[in-house]
Amino acid sequence: MADLSLNGRQSYATTGQYSKLDNKGNLILKNIKATTDFLPKSFYIKEGNFRFENEKMWFEKFFATYGKSDFALNGYLLNTINYFIERRGTLHGKFGLNSNYILIDEFMALKNGDNLDKSIEVEYTKVENPKSSGVVMIPKNLDIALGVNVRKAEFKGLALNHVKGNASVEKGQVYLKNTSFDVVGSRMSIDARYQNESPLTANYDIAMKVLDFDVQRAYKEIDMVREMATAAKNVKGIVSLDYKLKGDLDENMKPIYPSLEGGGIVNLRDVEVKNLKMLSAVGDNIGARAFNDPDMKGVNIETYIKNNLIHVDKFTFKVSILRPTISGTTSFNGLLDLRIRVGILPGGIIGFPVVVTGTHEKPKVKIFSKKGQGIIDALYNKKTNKVIRQERRAEKKTKRQQRKEKRAQEQRAKEAEQQINKDLKEK
């Protein structure tokens, strides 16, 4: 049902002369099916009550579903008449969004659905990548602010409950500001940004804070925790987290780990660490079984991630009367290159060095040594979203091999310089 009166030139809307417009009236829609060119399924507008007032289109009552997801909107759009007439430009608006349930998975561009009006880009990509789900695509013609209140959102089996905060869609990107939700029994606060680069790739950055994080529950329920913190399986208790990350997502919206970069602090607020293989191996080698049950309560661990390596800053903890200090590097595939100084009382002033290499599952310990075995980082091409090289253990080389390589490098440099001089003379 429509009761509309639209008066004024189209140029008034395109040039922002809204005071010269005289648009008013109401439009009521019920049980309308709608599609977009970047989503696999259709929207169903169960009820839409719109009021037009000059440049604004007010959503006075709006309820829609998309697959299993539901949305209620209240707010307004600007310049809608001009947009729908010309089919170009940017839609501006401000809304409150309420939902009982949002399943993010069903918004992924290459998922199966009833929408036959998808863009050519999406259709071709789906044909060429039949086993991929794609990423969530964000329209570039929106500039909208949202106050968000979602009872439950779900992504790849991970439930986010009582999502509240501020979101915006601008120039093909989604921003979350002062947004919080319950995840694995803890309240997490985030600021984040998301942008799709194609139907198959996306990038993001996120700053997150969480208190009272149950380590075991997070390890069991969150894939990324298992990948990034393999040692967490030996930790029970509560930690807090303050971390920033940026990276890319692949064709199934999974993190591309070599693309990750960032850092932050994990505070071991109230934890038990038992039988961690790396520490147990140290204890076995120095004759201190207490390493099987160290006291790490209250310890801050600061790390930085880049190129699939996790760099660990120095931190000190208690093992009976000992005061070990650990720093070094680990990798996502389990490689270790850690330095430990085992401090002895009083106050750990006197101590001796220990090096741990090998892997998380098979650590190798050297006592009274400061020389580890480095890890060569992974290489990732951000333009193609491809991993060029996985991280690997640096090869041990004899002094003779090192001298030979140095001579070869010097010879290559000399030949390159001669070639440059030759090219300059020819010019």
From TrEMBL:
Ranges where the record places region Disordered: 387-427
InterPro entries: AsmA-related (IPR052894)
Chain intervals with Basic and acidic residues compositional bias: 407-427
GO cellular component: plasma membrane
GO biological process: regulation of protein targeting to membrane
Ranges of Basic residues composition bias in the record: 395-406
Record protein name field: AsmA-like C-terminal region-containing protein
Naturally occurring in which organism (per UniProt): Chryseobacterium endophyticum
